[in-house]
Fold this sequence. Notes:
Layout: H1 9-24, H2 31-42, E1 47-50, H3 57-67, E2 72-76, H4 83-87, E3 88-93, E4 98-103, E5 110-114, H5 121-124, H6 128-133, E6 135-138, E7 141-144, E8 150-155, H7 168-171, E9 176-178, H8 185-197, H9 210-221, H10 227-242, E10 246-248, H11 252-268, H12 276-287, E11 292-293, H13 295-299, H14 304-314
Parallel strand pairs: 1-8, 1-9, 2-5, 5-8
Antiparallel strand pairs: 3-4, 6-7, 10-11
Helix pairs in contact: 1-2, 1-3, 2-11, 9-11, 10-11, 11-12, 12-14
Amino acid sequence: MSTPAPMSLDDLVRATGAIRAAVETVVEGKPDVVRLSVTVLLAEGHLLLEDVPGVGKTMLAKSLARAVGCSVRRIQFTPDLLPSDVTGVSIYNQERQDFEFKPGAVFANVVVGDEINRASPKTQSALLECMEERQVTVDGTTYRLQPPFIVMATQNPVEMEGTYPLPEAQRDRFMARLSMGYPSAAAEVDMLERHGEHDPLSALAPVADAELVRRLIATARAVYASDAVKEYVVSLVRATRSTADLRLGASPRSALHLLRAAKAHAAMEGRQHVLPDDVQELVHPVLAHRLLPSADAQLARRSPEEVLSGLLAHVAIPRSRATA
């Protein structure tokens, strides 16, 4: 597939604004959540939606998938789900007298994984290759996944009954994690008014397509990041590995994810360069879910988010804020 041509930042701002507006017709009162979801899409990442049942995690994933007009497959993760249900399987064709590959549910532009932590760790691990390398290997044959490709997975808190914690390797492959939270009283009343009469998702018309999304991604990727900003990202990531409050810090992959997300955030602001503010805006959703607190931090009830806030206050910010 040829490399898509970038577009102007003005066109990108208009296109992403249209996508966000379309999603917000379904997901009311959560503009920051919708914005982060579109940011992850532009940064070629994957999104983990973690919260209690019934707050709209799956609705957000489905509405974003419909708004961008790409191919969509949904996987309902259950304890009896097999890895082959996700990746695909080779079946012997009697007529051709040969094995024929039947693609699994992961072969789509947008994969909605519902309640991902209800499947066994073995099935969860079936996503590792496709999320990182955007390919699937079955019986020694590799099949490429067509861009854009994003996994939007929902999960309930681990303490919920019948759930399995995600392996660290898989959590690290999600670019960002967000929590929906409960809506405001006004938004909840509006939801009762609108969702009680009809399903707003059925009225949501696509405002983009796969080719447009590929051009948006190429444009965001081309945003300039200075050496000072890159050093700032690395300093933040390395700080998580040296603090006594964490027994597992952020990986080098997380530094790459943080920079990509910052580029997408800057592009959506209409800027051709990344500022430290872009990085700071995304530190919590990009890094927090990868970190494991130490025993002392757990006893002190210090969450990874609180540890990150402390690190942000101590890591020096680059002096030159204008980087273009």
